[in-house]
Request: fold
Amino acid sequence: MITALVIWIMNTIPASVEAISRVLPMVKDPEVIDQIIQLDIYSFFNTLTRVEKAGTYFVLVFELALWAWGIMLFFTRWIPQKLKDKKNKSIDQVNTLKSIKWKLENNMALSKSEQKFYKKYNNAK
Reply:
């Protein structure tokens, strides 16, 4: 994504006189070059060489592959964990309730999440 942003910025920057004279070597008249600049035909990215553009596109593809790999790893770990959490929800609730009862028996303060869970549990009875 960063490389795509850099390419977009390079497309918005107008080409310099030197870059246009390198791309169009037959044009020697400075007035014609100024008119080409005013027409905004060439951007900085358009005046890059083939090797520079190829390198930029290679970096872009590499970055997109890294993003895809990261997203794939995230979902292959996140979705099974969510399914496992849903399956073990009742066990977790029982353990939370046991810890709340133990804290109440020993006159210890409950956290906000424990208070919320305990209120919900008492209202369900």
